[in-house]
Design goal:
Blueprint: H1 7-28, H2 35-48, E1 52-56, H3 59-69, E2 77-80, H4 87-94, E3 98-101, E4 124-128, H5 139-149, E5 152-156, E6 164-165, E7 168-169, E8 176-180, E9 194-198, H6 201-210, H7 232-242, H8 245-262, E10 279-280, E11 286-289, H9 293-302, H10 319-322, H11 331-339, E12 340-343, H12 351-364
The structure holds pyridoxal-5'-phosphate (PLP).
């Protein structure tokens, strides 16, 4: 059996350290916004090259908090990609904004910067680029457009802890960066967790208040906020995993390179590893394209190998949005959502496992 992710192997490698850290938190009786959250915020801000990191309850909440911190008003437009996990767009709608979709580049699966200007209107306030599957968006292009039109840039870095563009870390290049520590992400907790990063002292102040009922200090509520805090147990675990994130990401890149070699002469499109000098891909997912992906998935399943489709429907074709966007056609995203197939990917995957996956694919098509 080859799973999509293997959380157990990673836990076993770090078990002593993690168990001890968790027990220390239990014994400390300091469970919410304590010393581990503070230390994790400092350590991850350091690792990401940003001034501030604000822990919160999930990647989804990170997006909500960021949109509230920039004071998104009802009816204002936020440009994003239709080819992402639903949460990137759900946050815009729930915070009262209007999502505006821009189609993706077929080689990177990320929002196409060349199409953004056409989507800008007087109501546009922000852009949410998503670093899909662990590959950074071209943030020079995004920031240039944002500057010209005075837009806020919120990077959805949920899949990209450790990814880089021209040496800068994903999540550290816009006004705010949103991270998820969902267990299968490149930096995963043992439950839900999230974080917003920023270089702005003003956003930092607002985010710290917003995650804790809008309070500045105890029982002093300066705005309306929510309860969205990272807990001490998750922060203690994340501090340990953060020390190994470079190794994890190296491992993912090794796995991707081996996949590329084994799949070289076959008919599937492998992930673009274009321009290695500018892009440091961390392969949250290793996703191939083929018109007959169901056939490949079935063959893998018959051989006890997992695979998954991220994502079978673009966001604008989800039932909740379908009617609203019925006249919108985004052909690249729509085609890729029909052809994409993510293969097993985790840092500890062995060469023989990768070879097995590749052999089944080659025999099938
Ligand atoms: C996982 C994910 C989120 C949401 O993160 P949660 O921690 O699960 O709430 C948001 N955006 C993208 C692109 C994601 O992959």
């Amino acid at each position: 059996m080859i799973p999509m992710v293997d959380l157990k192997t990673q836990y076993e490698q770090l078990k002593n350290e993690i168990d001890q850290a968790v027990l220390e938190v239990l014994g400390s009786c300091h469970y919410i916004l304590g010393p581990n959250v503070k230390a994790f915020e400092e350590e991850s801000a350091n690792a990401l090259g940003v001034e501030y990191a604000i822990g919160c309850a999930s990647g989804t909440d990170a997006l909500h908090l960021a949109l509230r911190a920039m004071d998104l008003k009802r009816g204002e437009e936020v440009i994003t990609t239709p080819f992402t996990f639903f949460a990137s767009c759900e946050a815009i709608s729930l915070e009262g904004g209007e999502p505006v979709f821009v189609d993706i580049e077929e080689n990177t699966f990320n929002i196409d910067p060349n199409r953004i200007e056409d989507a800008i209107t007087p109501k546009t306030r922000a852009i949410i680029p998503v670093h899909l599957y662990g590959l950074s968006v071209d943030m020079d292009a995004i920031n240039t457009i944002a500057k010209q039109h005075n837009l806020v840039v919120i990077e959805d870095s949920a899949q990209a802890f450790g990814a880089k563009f021209k040496g800068s870390m994903a999540g550290g290049m816009g006004h705010m960066g949103c991270f998820s520590f969902y267990p299968s992400k490149t930096l995963g907790a043992f439950g839900d967790g999230g974080m917003v990063t920023t270089n702005s002292a003003e956003f930092n102040d607002r985010l710290k208040a917003l995650r804790d009922h809008g309070s500045h200090g105890r029982y002093n509520h300066v705005m309306l906020g929510v309860n969205s805090r990272l807990d001490e147990i998750q922060a203690a675990i994340l501090r340990i995993k953060l020390r190994h994130i470079d190794d994890f990401n190296h491992g993912r890149r090794r796995v991707a390179a081996v996949y590329n070699t084994y799949l070289k002469d076959c008919d599937v499109i492998t992930p673009d590893s274009h321009n290695e000098e500018s892009y440091y891909h961390v392969y949250h997912q290793y996703t191939i394209l083929h018109p007959e992906r169901e056939k490949i998935a079935a063959a893998l399943k018959a051989n006890n190998i997992a695979s998954a489709v991220h994502y079978p429907k673009t966001v604008h074709r989800q039932p909740v949005y379908e009617k609203h966007f019925q006249d919108l056609s985004l052909p690249i995203s729509e085609r890729i959502s029909e052809q994409c197939l993510s293969l097993p990917m985790y840092p500890e995957m062995t060469e023989s496992q990768i070879q097995q996956v590749a052999e089944v694919i080659k025999e099938t098509i």
